[in-house]
Amino acid sequence: MKTIALIGMPNTGKSTLLNRLTGAHAKVGNWPGLTVSLLSARLMVGDQMAQLIDLPGIYDLNGYSEDEKVVTTYLETQHPDLIVFMMNATQTDRQLNLLSQISAKGIPVVIAMNMSDEAKTLGITIHAEALQAQLGIPVCLMSAKYGQGAEKLQQRMREGLKRGQVSNLNPQQIELAFQDNVQVPAQASHKLTERIDKIMLHPWLGLPIFFGVMLLLFEGVFAIGKPLQDAMNWLFATLRSEALEPLLSGLPSLLQGLLLDGFYNGISTVASFVPLIILFFLFLGVVEDTGYLSRAAFLMDALMAKFGMDGRSFVMLLMGFGCNVPALLGTRVIRSKGLRYLTMLTIPFSLCSARLQVFVLFIAAMFTTEQAPWVLFSLYLMSILMAMLTSMLFKKQYVNVDAFVLEIPPYRFPTFKQMVLKGWQEVRHFLKRTTRFIMLGVLLIWLLTHFPQSATPGSMDTWAGQLSHWMSPLLAPLGINEQLTLALVFGFVAKEVVIGALAVIYGQDGQGLIDAIVQNMDWISAYSFMLFALIYTPCVSTIATIRQETKSWPFTVLSVAWPLCLAWLVSFAFYQTATWLRLG
Amino acid sequence: MNTSLKVSAPQGEKLTLDQIPCFLPAKVIAVQAEADLTQRMAALGLREQCVVQVLRHASFGGPVQVRVGTTEIIMRLKDARQIHLASL
Fold first, then answer.
1. Is residue A221 part of a domain?
2. Quick check: pTM over 0.90?
3. Do B39 and A303 touch (CB under 8 A)?
C-alpha cells in the first residue's frame, strides 16, 4: 500500500483535511499543532488504496522541538511515497523555507493551499496553474473546512503517486515562483478580528471578559453536564435494581457482589464521565477553534509565567474545578512536554465537583450557616495554593523548553460537525484507554472492602478496615480516625464515594450520618479531614487519565505520591497547630 | 542571555521590539535570540529585513502582540528585547 504523509506548519488545517478526506474524524483545532500522535487513515486514491498519515505541525525540518524530531524521524525511517504539503494560503511567504526543505527530501510533493477562501477575503490573488507550471509541483487551492477543492486534491494526489516525479528546486526558485504568482495587497489584515480583539484583548476589559468567558464555559459544561451525569447514574442504578439484580439473584452472593459491585460499578463509573467529557470538548472546541485559547494565553501569561506555566495551563486548571479528567485530556493543546507535565501535575489539586459534595456534607454538619461559605472558600483557596506551590516546586524539573512565541490565528467559527466529532473522538479515546484501569481500581477496592467473607462488607473487619487500622498511627496525628481513613480508601475510586462509604461505615444515612459525624469529631478534625481529602491521591479515573496521556509510570507514581505527602504535611500542620492553640 | 552575539544597530538607534510604540511600523535589523528561538521566529515570518508592527501589550508586563505580514504573533517581553529594529 502506498503511503501519503501530510506535512505543514501548525494551524494549517492538516487534521481538518484528514477528516475531510477520510472521515476518520481526526481531532481538529485552531491552535498551533494540536494533532498529537500520528493519526492515519485509509483512503482510495484513484484505483489504489493508500494510507494517509497526519504528521505533527512543524515550523522547520531542522528544528529543535519534539514534533520536529518526530517528522524528521518519520521521513527518514518510513519513506512515504508522496508528501502533501499543507500551506495556509494567507501566509505563503513564511512557509517557503519549510517547503524547500521538504522538496529537497527526494519525495514527490503535492502542495495543498488551504484556507483559499480566507485568502480571497483578504484580497490575496493566487495563480495556481501558473504556480504549478513554474514549480513543476502539483498545486491545489482548497478549503479543508468547507470542502472546496478536496476532489481536485485527490486528483493531484493520484497524479503525484502515479508519476512519482521529484522536482529539484532551490529555495530561490521557489521564492521566485511564489513572488510571481501570489499577490498580497499591502494592507491585508483581518478587519473583523481586529475589531473583536480591540475588545477581547483590551488592557482593562480583557481580563474581566476572559473570566466571564471561563465562567460561562464552566457553567455551560456543568449546568448541562451534571444533570446528564445524574441521569446516567440513575440509568445505571435502575438497570441494576430492575434488571441485573433479579437476573443474578440465583447466583452465590459472592459472585453476585463481584459482578454487581465490582464489574458493573466499574462500568458505571466510566460511563458517568461520558456526558462531561463530550460537553467539555464541545465547549473547549469553541474556545479553541475560534482562536480564543491563544488569546487567553496572551491575557494570563504575566501571572502564569511566574509559576513556570502559561495561560493555557490556567484554562485547564480552571476546568479542573469541574472535573479533573477532561481538564487533563485538554492539556494536549500544550505542545511542550515539560509544560504539559507540569500542568498535569497541578490539575488534580483543583477542587472538583465530586470533592465538593463531600465538603458540603461535612461543612453542613460541622459549621454554622454563617461560617459555611468561608470554610468552603478557604478550601478553594487551598486548592489554588497547592496547585501553585506544586508548580513552583516542580518547574525546575519540568522546564518549558518551547519558547513562548505563539501565532494568534484570526477568529474563525467552527462548524457544528467539527465540534461534535471532536467531543465524540475524545470520549472514544477515553473509553478505549482508561476503562481497564478504572475497572481494575474499582475491583481492587471491592476486594478490599468485601473480604474476608466473614466480615460485614465495608466494615472495619474487612481487609480495608485492617488497612485503615494499620494506617491509623500515620493518620492519627492529623486527627483522622480509623473510620474516616477507611472512607478515604473508598475515595480512591471516586471522591464522591466517600459519603456513601461513611454511610456504610457508620451504618447511617441522611441526618443520621450528619449526627454520626458530629458525634465522632470536632471541627478541627473535620477540617483536617477535608484538607486531606482535598489534596490526597487523585481518584482512579484521574490516575488512569494521567497514565494514558503520559504513558509514563514514573510520572503516574509521582502524581499519586506527591499529593499524598503534601496532604499529610498540610493536614498535620493544620491539626497540630490548631490543637496546640486549643481552638477546638 | 546572548550578550556574546553583538550585532551593532545603526548609529544612534538602539530600538528593540519591546520598546517601540504601538502601530508604528519598523524594520527588523537583527534577531539576537538563541538558535531555536530565532528559527521559530523566522518560521513565523519574523526575520531580518521584514517590517513589524506592535499591536498591543498585555497588562501587568505580559506578552506583546505583533504583526508581520498577515501573521500575528505573541511573545514575552524578554524575547521581544532580542529583536532589534530600525525606524522606517
1. no
2. no
3. no
pLDDT tens digits along A335-381: 788 899 999 999 999 988 778 878 888 888 888 888 888 898 899 89
* DSSP assigned state of A56: P
Closest CA of chain A from B58, distance in Å:
6
* Residue A167, domain CATH: 3.40.50.300
Q: A147-161, A517-531, B6-20: lowest mean pLDDT where?
A: B6-20
Chain B within 8 Å of A187 (Cβ-Cβ)?
Answer: no
pLDDT single digits (tens) A232-290: 888 988 998 899 889 988 888 888 888 887 778 777 777 877 887 788 778 877 887 88
- CA-to-CA distance for A149 and A351, rounded, in angstroms? 48
B44 vs A405: CB contact, 8 Å cut-off? yes
Instruction: Kindly determine whether residue B44 and residue A207, on different chains, have CB atoms separated by under 8 Å.
Output: no
CA distance A501 to chain B (A): 47
Angle (CA) A414-A315-A339 rounded to 5° is 110
Residue B41: closest C-alpha in chain A:
A405
Nearest CB to A407: which of B33, B44, B58? B44
CB A266 within 8 A of CB B23: no
With respect to residue A406, please indicate whether it lies within any of the assigned structural domains: no
A310 interaction partners in chain B (CB closer than 8 Å): none
Q: Single out the residue in A148, A174, A189 at which a domain terminates.
A: A189
* Residue A478 structural domain: 439-580
C-alpha–C-alpha distance, residues A80 and A5, integer Å: 6
Q: What is the mean pLDDT of chain A?
A: 85
Rounded to an integer, what distance in angstroms lies between the CA atom of residue A406 and that of residue A400?
14
Cell of B58: 498585555
Q: What is the pLDDT along chain B (88 residues), one digit of tens a residue?
A: 444 444 444 444 579 999 999 999 999 999 998 888 898 899 999 999 999 999 999 999 999 999 998 899 999 999 999 999 998 8
Pick the residue of A298, A309, A339, A402 with the most B CBs within 10 A to test the interface with B by mutation: A298
Fold of domain B22-87: SH3 type barrels. (2.30.30)
Helices (H) then strands (E): counts for chain B: 2, 6
Q: Residue A65: list chain B partners with CB under 8 A.
A: 36
Q: What residues in B contact A120, CB-CB < 8 Å?
A: none
Q: Verify whether the Cβ–Cβ distance B36 to A59 is below 8 Å.
A: no
If we measure between CA atoms, which residue out of A211, A135, A512 comes closest to residue A361? A512
Pull the grid cell for residue A274.
Answer: 461520558
- Which residues in chain B have their CB less than 8 angstroms from residue A66's CB? none
**Cell triple for residue A532?**
486531606
User: CA-nearest residue of chain A to B63?
Assistant: A298
Out of A35-44, A545-554, B30-39, B77-86, least confident range: A35-44
Is there a domain that residue A235 lies in?
Answer: no
> Cell numbers at residue A238, please?
435502575
Residue ranges per structural domain of chain B: 22-87
Which of the listed residues A169, A189, A209 is the one where a domain comes to its end?
A189
ipTM over 0.95: no
Residue A464 CA to residue B31 CA, distance in Å, equals 62
